[in-house]
Amino acid sequence: MSAASHPTPRGEAKHDLILATAEQVFASRPYHEVTMDDIAERAHVGKGTLYQYFESKEDLFFAVIDTGFEGVERSLAAIASSSDDPATKFGRMVTYFVVDTLRKSHLVRIAHSAEAHAHAKRMESFLELRARVVQLFADVITEGMEAGVLREVVPGLLARSILGAAGSMAFDFDGAESPERIAEDCYDVLAHGILLRQGEAE
Q1: Of 38, 61, 84, which residue is a domain's last?
Q2: What residues contact 96, with CB distance under 8 A and at least 6 apart?
Q3: What is the pLDDT of residues 59-91, one digit of tens each?
Q4: Is-above-0.85 flag for pTM?
Q5: Helix (H, G, I), strand (E, B), or coil: what is residue 189?
Q6: Residue 67, CA distances (Å) to 19, 40, 61, 126, 198 in order
Q7: Alpha-carbon distance 88 to 94, whole Å?
Q8: What is the total count of domains within the chain?
Q9: 102: buried, middle or exposed (CB in 10 Å: 19+, 13-18, 0-12)?
Q10: In 10 A of CB 191, how many CB atoms?
């Protein structure tokens, strides 16, 4: 595993190519139908090259899941720590998360597949990431409540509801509506509710 232990720019590029290719292959058909030969052929690398970077198909499968979502926490943390007021932070976080989740709908399906959940130990890093994302949302919701700009709610419950709703939408996402439009509607419902206000019926 020398390429993985001492990565060079070329080695990193090949590593990223393999991950991107594996992501496409795992998204296209069930885990049990995918072989390392399939991924090597699609990536135009030798099968031995795959094993220089990943010990097994299982390792590659979970690397796809982990790396696919690694930027989510970082981006949300940047918004949460910004100088924006709590309401603006909340809106930006909801919009970013819904758009990102829909754009990665194939990864969401991979991460929630039976194969992924059959390996509980390997899913720990993904579940830990999810818990940290929930906490980021909950902290900003709490900040907004304390500032008097968000109504009193159970922060963690609302945070988990946002993640759950985005994930559920990802399963059915077909691209008919843009992720940005869907995120706008989601935030509008969260911010203003679903009931028509007086004068809006017209």
Answers
A1: 61
A2: 75, 76, 79, 183
A3: 999 999 888 888 899 999 999 999 999 999 999
A4: no
A5: helix
A6: 9, 19, 10, 10, 47
A7: 10
A8: 2
A9: buried
A10: 12
